[in-house]
Amino acid sequence: MIYNIAIDGPAGAGKSTIAKKLAKDLGFVYVDTGAMYRCATLDCLNKNILPEELEKIETKTLSLDNSELFKLMQLADEKSKETKETAYYTPGIYTSCLMLGEETVNVAVTVDENHINSVEIVNLSDSVATMYPLVKPAMEDISNQIINNQSTDDITYSKSNQYTSIVLLDAVNDALSKAKIRAT
Questions:
Q1: What is the rounded CA–CA span in Å between residue 166 and residue 19?
Q2: What is d(CA 95, CA 172) in angstroms, rounded to the nearest whole number?
Q3: 103-119 as b/e: b if 16+ CB within 10 A
């Protein structure tokens, strides 16, 4: 039997992070279709195909074989790593939204030019905190690790709140991506 699992949701909700973990836990193959679309877009841009040239885009996208797509994904990953190594921040407070039930919760990250100064949930209501009791302690733990390490890499969390921590960490990464100065 073949299983396909699709996860949908708003940006910064932790879809990719949860999907990778779920695929690993279940022994499934993880396919990042978002990365494939971004790579196809990068390839079109590199070939000077404009967004309004729909026919060329469709032809180019449909004609990509697996080896071309894999090479594009590697190129995008290398460019992403280069940006991470030289990334500094534009000072400010950056947020990312999470949906917890019917409530929107914001994760705020405060940075100066070279440091992550704080990571917090700014609008966690008492009712949401009661419904999701792991959110607040998970965020405090993640926040302390990020501030101490000045990075979201190698964050550890207990198995009892791993999914909560993964979603929160994904929101922090989304907020930090807004703060990073883009390489030009």
A1: 11
A2: 8
A3: eebebbbbbeeeebeeb
Q: Do 142 and 155 meet the contact criterion of CB atoms below 8 Å apart? A: yes
Query: CA geometry: angle at 156 spanning 24 and 116, to 5°?
Result: 120
Closest residue by Cα to residue 136 from 144, 79, 92: 144
Q: Rg of the Cα trace of the chain?
A: 19
Classify the C-alpha dihedral 161-162-165-167 as positive or negative: negative
153 within 8 A of 167, measured Cβ to Cβ: no
Query: How many CB atoms are located within 10 Å of the residue 162 CB?
Result: 15
> In terms of Cα–Cα distance, which of 118, 99, 98, 151 is closest to 108?
118
Q: Under DSSP, is residue 108 helix (H, G, I), strand (E, B) or coil?
A: strand
Report if pTM > 0.85.
no
Instruction: Please write the tens of the pLDDT for every residue from 123-161.
Output: 888 988 899 999 999 999 999 999 999 999 989 988 888
Residue pLDDT, tens place only, 22-76: 888 888 877 777 767 776 777 777 777 776 666 666 665 555 555 665 565 566 5
| DSSP annotation of 65 | -
- Identify which of 62, 83, 78, 66 has the alpha carbon closest to the alpha carbon of residue 31: 66
Query: In which residue are the tokens 């404009």 written?
Result: 50
